[in-house]
Request: fold
Amino acid sequence: MKYTAKPLPPVNLPELKQVGKPLRRVDALSKTVGATVYAGDFSLPNMLYARVLRSSLPHGRITRLDTSKAAALAGVACVLTAKDLPQSILVTDMPGQTGQKRRSGSDAQVLAGEVVRYIGEPIALVAAETLDLAEKALQLIEIEYEALPAVYDPFEAMQPGAPILHAPDNVVARWKIRKGDVRAAMRTADLVLENTFQAPYQEHAYLEPEAGVSWIDERGVINIRVCTQVVEHFRSISLAVGVPQNRLRIQGTMVGGGFGGKEDITVEIFLGLLAKATRKPVKLVYTREESILAHSKRHPYVIKHRTGVMRDGRIVAAEIEMVSNSGAYVFLSPYVLLYSTGMATGPYRIDNVSVDALSVATNTPFTSAFRGFGAPQVCCAYEQQMDEIAKALDLDPLEVRRINYLRKGDCTAHGQEITSEAWLEETATRVLEALGEPAPDQGPIKVGQGFASYMQSYGRITWLHDTSQAWVGLEMDGTATIRAGVPDLGAGQVSALCQIVSEVLGVPMHSITIYHTDSATTPLSGTSTATRQLYMSGNATLQAANTIRKTLLERASKYFEEDPQNLDLADGKALVKSDPGQALNLKDLITVCAAEGLPLANLAMFKAPFTDPIDPETGQGRIWPDFTFGAQAVEVAVDTETGEVSVLKAVACHDVGRAINPGAVEGQIQGGSSQGMGYALTEDLSVVDGRIRAGSLSEYLIPTSCDFPATQTIILESGSGVGPFGAKGIGEPAFTPAPPAVANAVANAIGVRIFELPITPERVLKALGKAP
Amino acid sequence: MEPEVISLTVNGRRHRLLIDPNVTLLQALREHLGYVDVKNGCEKGDCGACAVLMNGKAVNSCLMLAVQAHGAEIVTAAGLGSLEHPHPIQEAFADLGGAQCGYCTPGMVVATKALLDEIPHPSEEEIRVALSGNLCRCTGYGQIVEAVRAAAEKLAAAETV
Amino acid sequence: MMPEFEFWRPQSLAGALRMMAEVAPQIHPISGGTNLVVDLRGGRQRPRVVLNLEGLSELKGIRREDGHVSVGGGISIAELLGSELVYAYAPSLRDAAGVFASPLVRNRASLAGNLVDASPAADTAPPLLALDAEVQLASQAGSRWVSLDEFFVGVRKTVLRPEELLVAVRWPVPADGTRFGYYKLGLRKADAISVVSAATAVEMDEKGVCVRARIALGSVAPRPVRTKAAEAALQGKPLSEETIRQAARLSAEAVQPISDLRASAWYRKQMVETLVARLLRQSMESTPRMEGKNGA
Reply:
């Protein structure tokens, strides 16, 4: 089948000078020469080293905890357990942090008190003069448990008689959608297809394990230098440590990978408590094995689709039931479930929709944020269901989607109008065209192609009343300074802000310095999560820069005797657009403004739309600021005798609205695609009876450089996003379509579908009927 | 256990170090000598973040005892170039998106140096194989491969000048 | 946490053997350290003394002499990979070296270390078994040659005595007309522990009759194994689809693999049959060899 790219509608994107260029990121060189200092690279004199004692049982009552021998060991500065804590429950949603009237519940323990509920749950903290001593001390802590009945499967956890982790029935979150009349519509359908899909755990496996150093400074303020995705956690950290909010400072470092795994609090509270208890600097660095044990995972889901379709491919009704495994504690499960619910039907226009979603607690590793935040799991389901529908109706997989794609102006299943471009057919046809004709089969090697379209929100849930602040200022010598709380996870979050300032104020990139991620000295820009930083902090930065620009151009208009509309700032100068020879050095303009008392700095706050929560009965209402749309297509070769799957080609096309830095966008697309293909093929956490069997990087297999070819990236710019210059977001969207594209390609290759991931060689042989 | 005095050169600088035999080269470089550009990603030889050049060969410093490096010449990423004078490999990585979060980057740069020393004009497959012991979670390796290619060209051009 | 130990530096192999004799069994040699350092950190090894063998010239060298190819135990996997002699006389060993762990590990890991560790998944073992390799075990009292097949006796168990070192590996120069095959099946395309690995060596005469066959497998038994019944079934017969299928089936029947994190027993068994058949078929057809790494 030959596909041709659907022509794009004419888009009038203004020509920009810095934005839109693949400039070298401001943090790049430092990283390549090894000058960037990460959280574990920092040391202070007299520093103590910390270790954490963790539960070895999935569910147990601690009957004896004796830390006396550990505390008595020479060189051990302190040992802390739950009884030493000012606050034992981890509170994460602080008053004022979001716009919610009713705060989200949290039930995680800072340190386990009486009961442990998952293997790896923290129980005690040790700080000692050397790491070896801390390790020895850990081994001297005497602990006895009474094993309690454990439950590992969410369906079992909902049965009467199951051990209760979360009263009353282990269900930690519920969402639903009721739109139209599903029952009636199903009766009119020509065909009803029912399939159940499973999406597994995923481990973030960022290269940088969690780490940090804490100390008390001369003001008596507890400083914590740490890799984190959320500076604002300082509020809950200070509560847990027992100090006022303005007596605890989070200095966030360049993060060596986050993907959601550093979105919850990791080492911060432990560091704060130990610094407070010892009055000395404390360093805590997780080993890789500990990191895998200690932090969250992607929620596994079981998703059942029942879809009513007409012969011509129109979907008339969708009934979806899903259950996610929340693990031992709630963390972000309700929000992840909401994403799954809102995007459960995919980027398709369906008049009659019923979605029932549950998240259930079990004695397994806790699950929380991971790139996509519940949307990828449902994409795995809906995009495979679309291919199944195509197969059942004997229609081309693209055609079935084309008939049903959402368009701008349509409403989603949860009743939100799509107000930006929804270039679904444009992106799908481009990836299919680029994929070309499949390579021929060779003997037992069968080649298949598959693709997936997706929708992924960017920006946080609108009823969280998200805001971001950024400060931009000009120095007397014409250089610029930015201060923003933005945590940089490696996606170029802070460099994008520099590029925006460079565009608006005409200051060259190399003359811009950005200070970031410090709760004491940088305005708070919100979390680096939910694909929100470019949208929120980019807009805040743009606002601040534009305010300064206005001041400069108004003053310059007097100098040039020109309307400010005819003036521009570029290359360190103010100039007349129609006659660039008429120019004034920015430095000189600045000094004039300064002398006249005109403000050359601005603190701006950007606010996302503030809405109310959706109707709990119907799920109707606005949830997000906007969506990114796109597609990925993959060609695979499956060895039908060994089951091995090789990716031959991968192409991704996303409408990013506006690519502030196309090089960074390409990097995100390729990285997200690789991470998604790993999820589909090689990454198997293998949790059995609450225990992670793939406990290190030789068992949990993330893609190496030899596993997948580079994903060809096609970047489209509709200019219709709500981010700066019409940008959308790409961080999470880059991941979402990759796993189902692979699953669809494998199904196409072998003629039978595998309903769970990862698609291991064994699962391929099982599907082919070759297992005993 | 008695500590031993070892001598080694790191990035051209000579060090004499009194060190216990059970300390790995990674720990010695980071904790004892302050070369924190060498990263700890797994301490098990699975990820390559700790890669250094030892007598010209790229090795996992986490899998060596420091005492085994007595008399060795070690080069870390910071020894190849600096902010003021970056190595062409480092410039190529910086220009082409070879570093996102940057945590794998020092090891990746070291492995690249070892590759280009041995094979000045590597094919894509040779590049991918040479870097197969350096895990990256951010880039998907595409821009890293491009950076290595660009670095190879830069170095070749410098040769012919 | 690393245990405490002494680090001894012998100046010669004789010195090393003396030290072994003095302290055995509380002494463990180190060459590259790519296994031992991990084992020390994990508490699996707690020797009183770690004995440095790196740099001992007696343990280096790859030579052809007396109808054998001889490799010093201290040779690194990277050196094996780059050796002309290995390429010429043990192409399956070269293939295995090419997919052994990662390039960084290959620069350090030693051949002796891989064999002495005796993991059932040891990558160099199946090719060497298929080459009828022998290992030289030396102690202060003298040295002995043991066939590699007799060297392995169980999971991480060998006949190496506590005071002995594995100092060399040798195999007879294969006859002209010997065809080799090797495949490592893993769950990722690089840097993966094998799920199943297979090495074959088939010596054919001018009439296409199999004079000698060797089939060796990794990760399907407590130790790397040869499937001798399958080998015997091929001996004296021409390679044909029928004899190949029989040998493959006999190989699968001969092993009782375990189920573990990486694969189920049934899958390993089935892969033995599939891979042995494929490798033998390639030898029969003289088609381009399956590359040593997994992947289409």
Summary: The two ends of chain C are 41 Å apart (CA to CA). Chain C touches chain B through 27 residues (CB under 8 Å). DSSP finds twelve helices and 14 strands in chain C. Chain C has a mean pLDDT of 95.
